[in-house]
Amino acid sequence: MGVAAAVVGAGVGWLAKPTPGPAPTATATATETATATITTTAKPAEAPVLEIYHWWTSGGEKAAIDALVKVFNQKYPEIAVLQSPVAGGAGYVMKAAMKSLVLAGEAPDAFQMHAGYEGKPYFDGGYLDPITDVWTQQGFEAVIPKVVQDMVKFGGDYYAVPVNIHRPNVVWYNKALLDKIGADPATLTTWDALTAACDKLVAAGTAHPVSLGDSGKWAATHALEQIMAGEGIDFYQDYVNGKLTSATDPKLLDALNIFKKYLGYVNPDHATLTWDEATARVIKGDAAFNVMGDWANGEFLVAKKVYGKDYGTFPPPGTAGVYGLVIDCFQHPKGVKHPENSRKWLTVVGSKDGQDAFNPLKGSISARTDANVSKYGPYQTAAIADFKAAKNMYPSVVHGSGAPEAFTAKLDDIMSAFVNTKDVTAAATAFTDAIKAASADYTTVWKLV
Ligand code: BGC
User: Best of 290, 301, 399, 408 to mutate for ligand 1, by most ligand atoms within 8 A of CB?
Assistant: First the structure.
């Protein structure tokens, strides 16, 4: 069971279609001597360099990208990989910086990007090269699930290669704290049960049982998104298809009310913490719960915590059997300095070896069905089984895939205002107004059921 996406109509992007300039003339100075300069029309040899951008700067994230680069360098030892990591979880800093670089004609050879809508403005603006030939040469279609394929295609061609599949709908818990109050995580299947456990934790001395680190705003929106997914897949399908337009929608109001209650258990310094600092509170036992994507597993691994003994996970209430999708990709920007090295990078990004080096450290599962499961720890082994058995899947909006940028660009500010005011009516109005204002940009029809 999965997600089917059909693209209809043309979207309005933030990038204007560039006016084509004069065709570049390939000239290179092949040899220089004291007496003569020979100019040739042959293609200049590409410098042995690959420049990539990403936002993987936490402990687990860095370990994972370094492992992927290592696989690349085993295959291409002559190519120096220049990584430009831009701190800021979920890419909230890098995404804006990348727009400026691309608009200025300074795109790196490849950059981290989410599948789905996030690539569409680049595609609409003519800033990406199709890479269907890379997909064909590497046989990716045979091993990458259709649900993922559909999310990296525009206009019938492939424009990105996925490196993973992250799951956003996960509650991470500290086992010792739950043991202390005698709470069985398997029973925390409703928000009422979860908040009752929070009350017990408070009574037992954990002042703020739920950790949140929304210094970049998105982590609060991330939590709300998982609460919304728990309201039912039909509701979520309407949401990503731009049909959630009534500010009195009972499920939207319910989700916001749950979130309001949830915020009552959150650490008061949440706005000063990054996502990984919030996860660290659960690792240390200062908080019991953290709703976060499974990149959090990388932090537990770096801290040498043992799944099932020190920590565990369960789906946010209402999302059991449902798998949210956060898919990191790389692409081939047009006119990059090292086009061949960019293509080589994409082959390694999509390779079995590359993915089986990267994902066990990253917390995600491989985007390939032929992953070597023995390389993955217990959390991910369970996630691989959950992915296969999922009755529904849904694209994350917070992480760029599920809705157009005209909406997502406003979302974090709306939720951040809500975190401060807790005004459900105002948030529901702003939320649905933002969807209505972006209506022309909802060009993908998601079929989640
Ligand atoms: C990315 C993950 C990353 C997380 C936190 C998400 O948007 O998909 O790869 O670990 O943000 O930075």
Answer: 399
